[in-house]
Amino acid sequence: MAGTNTVRILDGNTFVVSEDTGDIEATPSEPTGLFSLDTRFLSKWVLTVNGERLNTLSYDDLQYYEARFFLVPGVATHYIDAKLSIIRERAVGGSFRETLTILNHDEKPVDLQIRMDAGSDFADLFQVKDEILNKKGEIYSEVDGDRLRLGYRRGNFKRETVISSSQPARYDQNGFAFSVHLEPNEQWNTAIDVQTFALGPGGRDLRMGLRAHGTERLALEQDLQEWIRNAPKVNSEHGQVSATYRRSLIDLAALRFSPVSLGGQTLPAAGLPWFMTMFGRDSILTSLQALPFAPSLSKTTLRILAGLQGTRFDDFRDEDPGRILHEMRYGETSAFEEQPHSPYYGTADATPLFVILLDEYEKWTGDVALVKELERECRAALKWVDDYADLVGNGYIWYERRNTDTGLENQCWKDSWDSLSYRDGRLPGYPRSTCELQGYAYDAKMRAARLAREVWDDPAYADQLEREAAQLKERFNRDWWVADGEYFALALDPDGRQLAVLSSNIGHLLWSGIVDEDRAAKIAEHLVGPRLFSGWGVRTLAEGEVRYNPIGYHNGTIWPFDNSFIAWGLRRYGFAEEAATIASGILDAATYFDGRLPEAFGGYPRELTKFPVEYPTACSPQAWSTGTPLLLLRTMLGLEPHEGHLSVDPRLPIGMGRIEVLDIPGRWGKVDAFARGRMDMHKLSA
């Protein structure tokens, strides 16, 4: 992962990660560079003046899509005597533009040689992530008149970076240069355009939504303002809550991207730098989190996932009929089937979650037309749950990869290799079945029953789904309950033995509604008890378990998105105070990350650390972490669609004071919600 002194700008799945000087000097293992469509189009971008590297005075992260760097020649000890200052301004919006401004502060003229070294390794993002840069095609660099063309070709797979400047430049295969004479107090500037081209079979240009350079920044600015203007307004006496909400809105805007097949419509990419693409699970859960604030994301997500729903049996892609994809990639390794992500279907949760999102979206928006449009896909998803996901034949969702070379071993949200274990720390065999998958299946059946009865005019199907859901709930509460711990097992192994460790997954069971009422209080007690709750949030694995590690990726860290759904589940079962406790901890943590919650952070006890400990390789921004404050706001205010109206039942932590959410969109038009913290709740730190 690039260091903390990196500067990142992005627009959908096009992004630039550089040093704080603006320079890029990528290595095979560092995600620095200009990336688009899962390919690095610039791996070298180094500015020198008279052969000297530059040093940073400061830099401004102006908007998610632009940054400005203030530089001087020489080392830090010479800053005060600098006679030149250099400003680099850059913006990304499908393509990349950088403006250089050089100012002469001396009382005498200067002659300058300004050079930009430029190059590209055209690394696939998987190659960067795996630290293996093994290019099988031809990399080329050529001067093409008044521009530099960098390229890579392998069969009909072709990627090019074309660089030009508004000022005359001398181009060579390694970059370009300018000779500049500046009188005292004179300045010089040039605009450098970097266009990326991705050509598929038959020479088809895969880029979508590129703007003309003259209108690019203006279009991005107008789009962002419209995005913010259309979202509800949040005001709070606890100022950090409003600031965190605004940060989340802006980051959601930044993460929107338009897949090649979508014709300009957008859905959320999962996270920077590794996951700037479509993920079934991540896009669905982020859309659920954002529903009261940005319902358009749900509609786009549902349509694109429906359009790419599995139709056949394909072992390489782990595809089945009715299965919702896990991940879609556009890079070289996918194009040549060295990776299965074109698309890859190896996830066990996206399929029932697809049905859940469709129902929740209709409850909020009243968009019956979309429910009718996606009836076939919804039925196919439910058929997958019953016919293809039950690998053992006991009525549960199981998973086991069929692509044993490059497929995912763990196909639940905790998808790292060691995330599932017995109490003694051993890992189970395959197939595997995690508890939250059964909750999602139960919820999907109950929600689809409503759609069948109210929209599809199929009451017999509705009755069938409700019977199946009731049977699943009864079976689950019998087979998964850990009697000596009074919680549900994390998973079952193929022989039906429990992985009887205490984990955050039990909170998702409350969200789904699969937990029997008489067991819910014990689950709530565990979730805010000292083994799972750190004070900042709920740990993925409880303290005291053999594999517990406060900085273990899925074995003790705190995931903000996980906590947001846990809090929502607690509210579903009436545990408002416990939900507020979790919301309080996560929103407190957000203030230490400048309102931008990372993918995960350390599970150390709060009394041990004055601030949440960063996880070293966490993605940021990440979509479902960005959506977390939105779902927590919904949960604390008790915003729920009910019989065509919006129900508001606020329960806020003390210390938050008055909070208002204005212009909440839905089938009811736009309504406002107001609340004030109660004295019997946990305090939210200022």
From TrEMBL:
Ranges of residues in domain Putative glycogen debranching enzyme N-terminal: 10-192
Transmembrane segments: none
Highest taxon, organism lineage: Bacteria
UniProt domain Mannosylglycerate hydrolase MGH1-like glycoside hydrolase: residue ranges: 351-591
Gene3D superfamilies to which the protein is assigned, alphabetical: 1.50.10.10
Biological-process GO terms, alphabetical: carbohydrate metabolic process
InterPro entries: 6-hairpin_glycosidase_sf, 6hp_glycosidase-like_sf, GDE_N_bis, MGH1-like_GH
Pfam families in the cross-refs: GDE_N_bis, MGH1-like_GH
Protein name: Amylo-alpha-1,6-glucosidase
Protein's organism: Micromonospora globispora
Lineage: Bacteria, Bacillati, Actinomycetota, Actinomycetes, Micromonosporales
